[in-house]
Amino acid sequence: MRNRAGVILTALLLALLCGCAPARPAAVYQNPIDFYYCDLEDPHGGALGALAKQTVDLVDPEITVEEILTRYLAGPDDPALAAPFPGGLTCESVTISDGVLCVRFGEAYAELSGIRLSLTNACLTKTLLQIPFVESVQIETDGGMLTTQTATAFTEDSFLLNDASDTPLSEAAAAEASAGEAETEKG
């Protein structure tokens, strides 16, 4: 009987010890930055809305903005994330003046429109505003500046409203939208 109780006690102790395995240590980054991309797992309501972030270690504290953009534009490592910008997008030039980071992209960026343009602007802005000396982000293409006349650059508080999504509907478009809603209510 004592032998059986000893075996049971040993088994219980082993089971408890297995649950006490040390947790994996959290990643330690030398120079972390969050790269923002689209969230494929919860595109309509995660903590960041349609966006999600992947923390990357830039390692070198002297890394240039161009090098950060090259790493960012390579896309996410996490399969649950997707880059909103077209594949192969490259940065043509970067300038900084009075806290405004001006990033110039080629034709591939100029072809973005609608929600994809809004998501790309949001992801780029949230990523680049983490750089200590960057207060706002101005995005340009061969066709000119993407921000509206009311703002010269995107900031944390304004990037979603300054990508033309704040343009009021014309009266005809508003009437058409009202008519569509009325039809939906009837049906």
Structural account:
The protein is of the alpha+beta class. The chain has 5 helices and 7 strands; from the N terminus they run αββαβββααββα. It has helices at 2-18, 65-73, 107-110, 114-128, 171-186, and strands at residues 32-39, 51-57, 81-82, 91-97, 100-105, 136-141, 144-145. A hairpin with a 2-residue loop joins strand 4 (91-97) and strand 5. It is globular, with a radius of gyration of 25 Å. The chain starts with a helix and ends with a helix. Residues 11-19 and 161-186 have low confidence and may be disordered.
* Strand tally: 7
Taken as a percent bin, the fraction of beta residues is 15-25%
Quickly count the helices: 5
Instruction: Determine Rg (CA atoms, Å).
Output: 25 Å
- Give the mean pLDDT: 74
N/C terminus separation: 77 Å
The order of strands across the largest sheet is: 4-5-6-7
How does the overall form come out from the CA principal axes?
globular
Spans with pLDDT under 50 lasting ≥5 residues?
A: 11-19, 161-186
Task: Please provide the ordered H/E string of secondary-structure elements.
Answer: HEEHEEEHHEEH
Helix content estimate: 25-40%
Main beta sheet: strand number and arrangement? 4 strands, mixed
The SS-based structural class is alpha+beta
What is the element layout, followed by pairings?
Elements: H1 2-18, E1 32-39, E2 51-57, H2 65-73, E3 81-82, E4 91-97, E5 100-105, H3 107-110, H4 114-128, E6 136-141, E7 144-145, H5 171-186
Parallel strand pairs: 5-6
Antiparallel strand pairs: 1-2, 1-3, 4-5, 6-7
